[in-house]
Amino acid sequence: MASVMKSLTRPMTAEEREKAYSTPKKPDVMERQRLPVRYHVEDFNVEDRPRRFLEVFASVLQHHPNYRLALDHYMRVTTRCARCAVACPIYDATHDPHDIPCYRSELLLSIYRRHFTVSGALRARLLGDPGLADEKLQEMADSYYNCTACRRCHFECPMGIDHALVTHLGRYLLSEIGIVPRALVVSTREQLIGKTANTSAIPLPALIDTLEFLTEDIQDEKGVHVPFPIDQEGAEYIFFTSVSDFMMEAETLKGIAAVMKATGDSWTIGSKYYDGINYGLFYSDQVMEHVLHMMRAEAERLKVKKILIGECGHSARTAKFFYPTYCGGKNALPVISILEYTQRALKEGRIKLDPKVVTEAVTYHDPCNIARPGWIVNQPREVLKAFCSQYVEMAPNGRMNLCCGGGGGTVSIDEIRPFRTAVSGRLKAEQIRRTGATYCVAPCANCKKQLRELMEDQGVECEILGLHDLIYKAILLPPDSAEETAAAEAADGSTASPAEGSPS
Amino acid sequence: MTAWIDFARGPLFRLSLALMVLGLLRIFIITLLEVRDGYRANSDKIVSWKEIRRQTLGWLFPMFRLWRQRPIYSTVSFLFHIGLIVTPIFLASHILLWRQSVGISWAALPQVAANWLALLVIFTGAGLFLGRALYSPARKISHRQDYFWPLLLITPFVTGYIASNAVISPRTYQEMMLVHIYSGDLILLLIPFTKLAHCVLAPLSQLVTGVAWKFPPGAGDRVAETLGFADRPTWVLNPRLTTAPVEEAIRKGGVAK
Ligand code: SF4
């Protein structure tokens, strides 16, 4: 694997470097915020930041025994062997020591050691160390958003340190003093206290319009009535996906609806809350918890039995691994990814795919959030191999895949696109280019956006799409029964609308 | 000089060994207690034990994964660790000391094997030092003490090897033994307080990480409350514009710190 990465590497030219680190941000803003980072940050109080950062740190340690555990342990075992450097795509591109995962973690670990351990405090007194300086905060603000939190380095650390957890904590602490990318907060704000309750600010009427339009589309293309049910109480599944899919990923949604139609399982989209995105995973535990509570409220309102997550890596991960954390432990509703669902349905013979439709070369990109824990690796491959005549793997893949370069929420930060496509996605672009595939399947809204930008900026000819985009091309739907046709006509070819009086 | 050697071989060794065992036990138990706290603070008891076991065993017996990255350095490091642990425990003359003082003994390594192992430790240890000094990412993240460890760790091996193999004057022999025993004792003493503690802590890492990703419910809100931001969490407009949130909140009587 090392050799694969090595063979992909070509050093960045000075020109590329300059472009990658360029930013549309105005120097006077950086000056005012005393924050030389490339992402926009809403104005916040810059006075006395180190002290406030330490207060936040103390408070987080007080309420999160899990972080104290991790920091204590990591601080004791870290041996600084630098094996992680070879695993990190960012370091591979930049060869900047500041991008070594262990260095990144050490930023926070050293603060912890200095301010929150007895030996650190004693040492500081002996050496006359003044403690946390503002420069360190600035460095962290930059460093923790250069990392895509892909967790690849975790697998190469002999000491078992999870640098992405440290990055997560670092971002959380910074956000509590106001240092957080504007793109993430603005979306979260709309989701948690805005009128539309979703990160893309799509109002319900617009959503319903879109879904009706998609149903008509399918009717035209497949001659079958495929509804997108809204507010069906007591359905088996409630469906959440990255809400941007409703604007950007029509084909994916059509594929998912077609699969649901073919299996006949009842499913529904909630009219009060329909966003799977959870940026809390990227910068704040508090946000993550509140977003999951909204999901839970909607699931309970509609009395569904399971939560079904669309093609979105971080939505799936937050729901699968943190929904139980915040919403009832083992008694929480089960969370299923559409990728698992479709694979199972195919295995059980509940959906039929035409193997003659997709003849072009297809490759598969593993979204970090679902592949790294070993959760979803083989399922989509099984599905693809079942109907794509030319399936090619990229290497490395599966649990050791390379991040698309837009992980950890960085894909939503438009102003750092040059960095994402020149640095963090650099290896990925090369990797995809080498497969020579026509289609690259990336079942994740974030990966798709990033990979499309990457293909464009790096000049790779490969179409990025979701798994269900391809499934939609190949799925064989039985013709509507007379009743279904009647129902479709009665609904005027439209989506089942939410009940009267539901809020818009 | 003999008195010095006897002191280091007797009381000092016993003290170092005891401190090492107790010290390691202490941090091992502290870590387990912290794991328990982290686990208890969480309502979600779904921990992937299988994955934790798999990864832990994978790193305890790393021969199958080491070659993936930095193969040479990793192999050198692996061999170093083997020699480092096996040689002092199974060296015939060490076992003899145990028998004489405490009356216990176990099977010893043949002297030839012990000699080769000692050489292995010396060369791989020097390799680790060079690997750190010459490999630029490692150099960039190293602390000064990181260069010191491999050198300290091979010291008893170098002196021990010379003392038992080289043709040297009795005086030099004694000097070698002196350095050998004192450096050995020093290592034992330092283990629990330094990164060498990873000898017992590393196997807990996967467990620690698994539990550390389990966030306690409500903790985010409690943090905001402690900081005086209960009504203005991060996602509200102008999240952090107050100058002294905590003091102000305490003044208003709202927050227990
Ligand atoms: S999590 Fe990914 S991007 Fe971040 S340091 Fe590790 S390998 Fe690099």
Characterize the structure shown.
The complex is a heterodimer of chains A (504) and B (257). Chain A contains 26 helices and 8 strands. In chain A, α22 (417-424) crosses α23 (426-435). Helix content of chain A is 53%, strand content 5%. Chain A starts with a helix and ends in a 14-residue tail after the last helix. Chain A has 2 domains: 42-178, Fumarate Reductase Iron-sulfur Protein, Chain B, domain 2 (Orthogonal Bundle), CATH 1.10.1060; 191-492, no CATH class. Chain A has 504 residues and is mainly alpha-helical. In chain A, strands 2-1-3-4 form a 4-stranded parallel beta sheet. In chain A, β7 (439-441), α24 (445-458) and β8 (463-465) form a beta-alpha-beta unit. With 257 residues, chain B is mainly alpha-helical. Chain B has 2 domains: 2-212, Fumarate Reductase Cytochrome B subunit (Up-down Bundle); 219-252, no CATH class. Helix content of chain B is 70%, strand content 0%. Chain B contains 12 helices and no strands. In chain B, α1 packs parallel to α8 (170-190), α1 (2-40) packs parallel to α10 (205-212) and α2 (49-60) packs antiparallel against α10. The radius of gyration of chain B is 25 Å and the shape is elongated. The model of chain B is unreliable at 242-247 and 253-257 (pLDDT under 50). At the A-B interface, α4, α5, α6, α8 and α11 of A face α1, α2, α3, α6 and α10 of B. The complex binds iron/sulfur cluster. Iron/sulfur cluster binds next to α8 and α11 of chain A. Residues 87-88, 90, 101, 104, 147-153, 163-164, 167, 403 of chain A line the site of iron/sulfur cluster.
